[in-house]
Amino acid sequence: MIDIKVPTVGESITEVSLVKWLKKDGEWVERDEVIAELESEKATFEINAEKAGILKTTAQEGDTLKIGDLAGQIDETATAPAKPADVTPAPAAAAPVAPAAPAPAAPVAAVPAPDVKATPVAAAILADKKLDVKTITPSGSGGRILKNDVLDALSNPGRKPGLEAFTRNDRREKMSNLRKTVSRRLVEAKNSTAMLTTFNEVDMSRVMELRTRYKDKFKEAHGVGLGFMSFFTKACCYALQEWPAVNAYIDGEELVYHDYCDISIAVSAPKGLVVPVIRNAESLSMAEIEKKVVELAGKARDNKLALEEMQGGTFTITNGGVFGSLMSTPIINIPQSAILGMHKIEERAVVINGQIVARPMMYLALSYDHRIIDGRESVSFLVRVKELLENPELLLFGKDPVKTLLEL
Q1: Which has the minimum average pLDDT: 72-81, 86-95, 193-202, 258-267?
Q2: How confident is the prediction for the chain on average, in pLDDT?
Q3: Alpha carbon distance 373, 379 (integer Å)
Q4: Positions marked active-site
Q5: What is the pTM of this model?
Q6: In this predicted structure, what is the pLDDT of residue 12?
Q7: Bridge pairing between strands 44-48 and 34-39
Q8: Given this model, what pLDDT does residue 99 score?
């Protein structure tokens, strides 16, 4: 027997949760096949089979395990199950044969569509029972289908979702390690910083015009779409270099300044909020930023982010606009000292040269630690970001070309 032990996943991590077994007890597993999924307070990890054999699970899904604990075993001495032989029938002698009736189509398992959110257990039951996900009423956060939703649909066939009366049942769910960490850090940020938020608004006309004009050529040249995040990241990098306190943090009685911009981007993952980091964003091109955003967001959705991809970061950008938020006050991602909140773009009446016109406007919010960042710095930083976004040509090297030519 080969022991399957919980591996070391990080210096500060002492325990993990067993999220699910990807292979069942008694099943044959191949060498290096992923057999289980673990979750720490920061990320999700996988366990691979060291050798081929029969899996024997000892830990149960939902158990909290210490590093080095036994999760299961593999019997490498077991005989591999025989694979079905590929039999090709010999051609029959030619003879007049009556046309056969078409065979009934085999039932296809109802696998949830990629855009349908369901817990692993719920998804497995849906596939096994061949249920249509449209008949399930999700009760989880964000429209997520839970195990009880599927079982309820099975016990009440034919009931249309949304027509039944609400019950007074309560349901308790164990908090994941990731959710515990998010909760702890948010409370710590509120209690340990002198947090304030300053607001401004930006006219997104020029940025939207550039995206419309060049999005096809950009995609053709770089293989990635031209989004808003590259514009905001570029603008923030220039503004951070002009106002270094916004890019710094407090360590004891010292201020730590950074000559680089490691931009954290807040991403809503299936198991909670994660904040992967774009390293040295100040030295990346627009296309390189967009590629990195797509890569990190994809890993976040698949729970494949490594610890080192979420550690560090000197400044955070969060986009609540994708969910329809018009205005909010984001919470600082400690130990950083500031976070920029993007919001939905909405056409509003604004006055330009004495005329009332409609413009696509976005509110920006900068939450900052007043212990290190003064009002002048926070407001000036946000005004600089606004200026760069309303004049995207300045993003080339952060300054007006004519003023640079005249050294003004």
Answers
A1: 86-95
A2: 84
A3: 10
A4: 370, 374
A5: 0.67
A6: 65
A7: antiparallel
A8: 46
The CATH 4.10.320 domain(s) of the chain lie at: 120-155
Q: Give the per-residue pLDDT at 164.
A: 53
pLDDT value of position 105: 42
Q: Tokens standing for 291?
A: 């590629």
CB-CB neighbours of 283 under 10 Å = 10
b (16+ CB within 10 A) / e for 120-137: eebbebbeeeebebeebe
Specify whether the CB–CB gap between 225 and 215 falls below 8 A: yes
Rounded Cα distance between 290 and 175, Å, is: 33
Rounded CA Rg of the chain: 27
pLDDT for residue 127 is more than 90 = no
Instruction: Give the 3-state DSSP-derived string for 137-188, with helices as H, strands as E and coil as C.
Output: CCCCHHHCECHHHHHHHHHCCCCCCCCCCCCCCCCCCCCCHHHHHHHHHHHH
Consecutive H or E run containing 222: helix 205-222
How, if at all, do strands 44-48 and 272-274 pair? unpaired
Over 80: is that where the pLDDT of 234 sits? yes
Topology adopted by domain 2-75: OB fold (Dihydrolipoamide Acetyltransferase, E2P) (2.40.50)
Task: Give the domain 178-405 fold.
Answer: Chloramphenicol Acetyltransferase (3.30.559)
